[in-house]
Predict the structure.
Amino acid sequence: MQIKLHIETDQEVLKDVMVENNENDFYKEIGSVLPDLKTDLPQTLYVTSDLGSAEFYLGKRGTYTENGIDYPSMYVKEKNNFIQGLTPAAYPDAYLTCIHPESNNYKYYWLRPNANGISATYGRIGVKRGEMFGAKDLKNPYPTHLYWIRYYEKLSKGYVDQSDIYLQDQKPKKKKATSFKANTPKEKEDTASHELYCLLKSYAKHVVKTTLTNEHVTIAQVKAAKRILQEMGKRKTVKGFNNQLLKLLQVAPRKERYIQKLLATAESDFADIIYREENLIAAMEAVASDENTTIDIQENSFTADHIEVYYATEKQKKEVIAHLSDRLKGKVHQVYRVINQKHKKRFNDYLKKEDIHQVKQLWHGSRNENWFSILENGLQLNPNAIITGKMFGKGIYFAPSSNKSWNYTSYRGTSWASGNSDTAFMGLYATAYGTPHDVTMSESFSQNKLKNLHCNCVHAHAGSQLLNDEIIFYNESAMLLNYIVEFK
């Protein structure tokens, strides 16, 4: 059954429509007109229908600045309501976020329907000195029928509905932890895998905990963050870049008092910001991947992902250490032998397909929080490679010299990564070196360009532009992680 609904202000008729006879559809029609009225406050909204009438006062409570323009901040008060006979309705949770850098507003509003009405939790960052993130609960729940009124009231102030990203199942299932003494080879594998799993996961969790306002990370958040980051890389102006960055900050809210500090002020800032966001997203991905796991030792390890991890034998350690510079040899704390069967098959198939017979052991360094994702997913081609200062294009970069890769780790004092940790990790990879294309000057390459040159990689030699050799591959199948080395 449908009923007639008429909505107007003192100045104009806004709607004259037929709606379903239920509370949800009826009040959603009313709420949807609010964002268009935000510039003309105060005023009164008049509602008449077949089931009665109501009046809503649209007031002004402060202002906010968006794109350099000051807008009144709307609040809605129900003056009277004589509407009766609507069919009751169920409402979803809604998680809304708002960023206005000019006003230093960085807020969220979580609407939660329940048996007592509509509850809400809200908070903001950067309001008071020392207040990084505060959460408050609404003292008196709203009447249920005001759900869409409050929802659209928030949208009128620049809030964005991020429910699809934040409101997934939030509590992973847990089992009691299992401990045992490792005696058999399989048990030793489980122990090494569990140790490395927990170690790498802890670094990712630390970054998420100290950077984001909410430690709970969903897969949807990670996917959205990756998509927005890729769009950031396409932007050529500071304004366009920051517009995408603000979207990313809504998806992954930060513990930052001043929002402007996170934004670019010049094009020269793009590389550092993208590098910062890439590292954070890698950490988020590691944490999000843990949502449906247990804390049983056999499952809380890489074994569940069909990745074998062992403590390296003494012979293997000697082989790995032989590839290190003298200054790094004394820092080795542990060496893990890694066998990802899926990646191993992919690598061997690539060698066969490309008829490559020369394989080289090369180093790759990365920040601590990235290694969990690297071990599970492998190194991946970076669409923002040129922006982040990669001299030879969208490739995956390795070095024969461990000192070169060291500067990309989290260790205290490293140059490129600005490390501040007493622990670092590097990976020793088997790479499909084959026939290299030798260069000494910066030039962008791709897999297709290499094929036309009948080469398998780019070998950039030290000279006027490089202090150390770099070897770059443009196919993710051209590398296989054999060892992860932990340094202290």
Observations:
- The CA atoms of residues 246 and 403 lie 37 Å apart.
- The two ends are 72 Å apart (CA to CA).
- Residues 126-132, 170-183, 291-298 have pLDDT under 50 and may be disordered.
- The longest strand covers residues 52-66.
